[in-house]
Automatic annotation (TrEMBL):
This is YgjP-like metallopeptidase domain-containing protein. Residues 63-265 form the YgjP-like metallopeptidase domain. It comes from the Bacteria. PANTHER family: UNCHARACTERIZED PROTEIN YGJP, UTP PYROPHOSPHATASE. Pfam families: YgjP-like. It comes from Hyphomicrobium denitrificans (strain ATCC 51888 / DSM 1869 / NCIMB 11706 / TK 0415).
């Protein structure tokens, strides 16, 4: 599977008053169920003063608290040992809140799907146009008077962002199904199912049952990048690891994969800037 990661920093524990940051006066609770279930493995709240989601996770193998900022989800993630209580986690975060703010400030701004906004599609810059046209609901791509490719999104403008997101999911699935079929045929393999998701921790994954999952944002990347991710996951149908035999399969079906791999490492995280407004469903 292909992952992306945030920024992580480990610290040792110190006991201080955690109420500055952890108290209800400073935190907006995202889901009340998380507050009640104190024994749950993970909980999520929102840091209202810095505009980020906070996730607290307990992990059985954790020996100390760790703190990282997810670049893709603009989330602050605290991982703590099972025996550590939430007050200690609050203290830990409070001590390093300046580090958190600095990391969040360094993240690129979110670019929502709005009228006249520019976004990539298959690696090429496109302009979004919410036309409001009522006679058709079909999204199309045309060039404007200056030969700039434009994504025309008809229908009510208040629903246009959601419609565009669904269309991008469909475009991603169409391209990925084609690539997966071609690569699987070369290895005499077959994927059981292909699913497109709004994944926040990986570009693609392969289950032990042969089902493949991909991020819809691959449709924003150049086609050779999407094709590489498809080849990568197809190779996992035969080798559920990243050993020499796995990479030999990838090279067999996608010989020039290194350029795509590097593109994802350098420019892939930037694709997470684009999408509907945070909090909207598609």
């Amino acid at each position: 599977m292909l992952h992306w990661s945030g920024t992580r920093v480990p610290y040792s524990l110190h006991r201080h008053d955690a109420r500055q940051l952890w108290g209800p006066g400073r935190l907006g609770i995202k889901n009340k169920r998380h507050v009640a279930e104190l024994s749950s493995q993970s909980r999520a709240v929102r840091l209202e003063d810095i505009g980020a989601q906070l996730e607290v996770r307990r992990h059985p193998s954790a020996r100390r608290l760790t703190l990282r900022v997810s670049r893709t989800r603009r989330a602050v993630i605290v991982t703590l040992p099972l025996q550590c209580d939430l007050d200690e986690a609050g203290t830990f975060l409070n001590r390093h809140i300046d580090w958190v703010r600095a990391r969040l400030d360094s993240l690129p701004n979110h670019i929502p799907f709005e009228d006249e906004v520019a976004m990539p599609l298959r690696g090429e810059a496109h302009r979004i146009a919410f036309t409001g046209a009522a006679r058709t609901r079909i999204i199309s791509v045309e060039c404007d008077a200056r030969s700039h490719p434009t994504i025309l999104v008809p229908g009510p403008k208040d629903l246009a962002a959601a419609r565009l997101t669904r269309w991008l999911f469909d475009q991603a699935k169409s391209d990925l199904e084609k690539s997966v079929a071609e690569h699987a045929a070369r290895l005499s393999l077959k994927a059981k199912r292909i699913t497109i998701r709004d994944q926040t921790s990986r570009w693609g994954s392969c289950s032990t049952t042969g089902s493949l999952s991909f991020s819809w944002r691959l449709i924003l990347a150049p086609s050779f990048v999407l094709d590489y991710v498809a080849a990568h996951e197809v190779a996992h149908l035969a080798e559920m690891n990243h050993g020499p035999r796995f990479w030999a399969l990838v090279k067999k079906i996608r010989p020039e994969f290194e350029a795509a791999k590097q593109w994802l490492q350098v420019r892939g995280p930037d694709l997470h800037r684009y999408g509907p407004d945070h909090g909207r469903n598609h």
